[in-house]
Amino acid sequence: MMQNFSFHNPCQIEFGEGQIAKLATLIPADARVLLLYGGGSIKHNGVYDEVASALSQHHWQAFAGVEPNPEFETLMRAVKFAREQRLDFVLAVGGGSVIDGAKFVAAAIPHDGDCWLIIGNRVPLKTALPIGVVLTLPATGSESNFAAVISRRETNDKLSFKNPLVFPKFAVLDPKTTMTLPARQIGNGVVDAFVHTTEQYLTYPNGALLQDRLAEGILQTLIEIGPITLAEPNDYNARANLMWAANQALFGLVGLGQPQDWATHAMGHELTMLHGLDHAQTLAIILPSLWRYRFAAKQAKLAQYGRRVWQLNGDDKVVAQEAIAKTEDFFQRMGLHTSLSAYQLDATIVADGVAEQLTRHNRLRLGEHLDLTPDDCRAILLTAS
Ligand code: NZQ
Ligand code: ZN
User: Stretch 233-237: mean pLDDT, rounded?
Assistant: First the structure.
């Protein structure tokens, strides 16, 4: 039965070509803007210049160098810079890493005390600076949600925090900005959005009919346009649909009133921290193995997914099995591997390491039934060899 829910997403979306110019009015005229960006892709593809031109009447200063899987130490340097320059509005221009970094920085700048405790929600937040986003990589949905994932290599931690105070005020989604993405990041984006959807859908039947069909619509859209975005990098409409589908996958509507899994993500973060795989690469390895390991508990929903998303026919068990194989094949067609050995990783070492990290991070009961232990996660990774 559909569970109770409340829903509020205050992020204004500005979608389409040329919308970056709207920064001129989206950001208050008297704001002192910290423009946060990554390793320089926006300098090469014209996005930086477009943003600079839109901000010609604003006071702004840039901080570059936020890395993929944003690093606490780097972000603390941005916090120091913003405090010194008395900046009071954070504009993220980039992918999920820059946006997550912006959320942390916006919370940390006015925070008294140890900022590391913000990660993992170990300290309450009183306030945060306002945040705006120009998205250049459709994948995480971070541009219009209130979650952030921050890494600290010194202590082997990749942990998230969530707080409505860091909801972006607006997100500019111009599909043109994605034209320069390398194939690897496009594949990553499609798979990440796909798995965000299944984490909120592929559990057990719950009677939430519209949410199920929203999820199935997003999955079908990704399956349809994923290969086109790879084969035709200049196909604007494919990029536009990817940008919107990835946004909607983690905008908040798909999971309302639904049981949710998120075990693939929890294991994936540890895998990234220990072995350096991209976020989506971890998901493509773990998800099929997790589904096979939890086959009995997920069979009914896997069969629904197989029939509605992949148009499979037959009895539940056969359809469910085929649906897993179809998913694996789709991830591979998007250029991702679905086994640890493809990345020259030893399954025993990975499985032991991830189980140890999950235990240390107190992630002891994962999945929609809260019964997936670190030992189960070890077993899942052993089958992902
Ligand atoms: O740093 P630059 O030079 O900009 O290059 C980036 C980076 O190297 C490049 N890139 C971005 N836009 C580009 C571009 N290259 C060419 N053209 C463009 N238009 O892409 C590389 C990867 O960027 P990154 O931001 O790291 O990728 P993604 O958006 O996949 O973000 C991954 C991070 O988000 C977290 C992940 O854990 C990971 O840390 N996630 C955040 C979530 C959230 N806040 O809700 C949910 C997700 O599940 C995920 O965990
Ligand atoms: Zn993800």
Answer: 97
CA 107, 248, 317: angle at the middle one, nearest 5?
120
* Residue 131, helix vs strand vs coil: strand
Question: What share of the chain in percent tops pLDDT 70?
Answer: 100
Could you give the domains of the chain? 12-177 (3.40.50.1970), 183-383 (1.20.1090.10)
97: confidence class by pLDDT, cuts 50, 70, 90: very high
Please report the pLDDT score of residue 366 as a whole number.
98
- What number does the ligand 1 atom closest to the CA of 68 have? 26
Please state at what angle helix 263-275 crosses helix 183-199, rounded to 10 degrees: 140
Predicted confidence at residue 320, as pLDDT, reads: 98
Backbone angles phi, psi at 241, to 5 degrees: -70, -35
Give the DSSP H/E element, type plus range, for residue 161. strand 157-162
Q: pTM score, two decimals?
A: 0.99
Instruction: For residue range 3-19, list pLDDT tens digits in order.
Output: 999 999 999 999 999 99
Q: Any residues with Cβ below 6 Å from ligand 1, and which?
A: 38-42, 45, 68-69, 94-98, 100, 136-137, 139-142, 145, 147-149, 177-178, 180-181, 185, 188, 192, 250, 265, 279
Count CA within 13 A, CB hemisphere, residue 36: 33
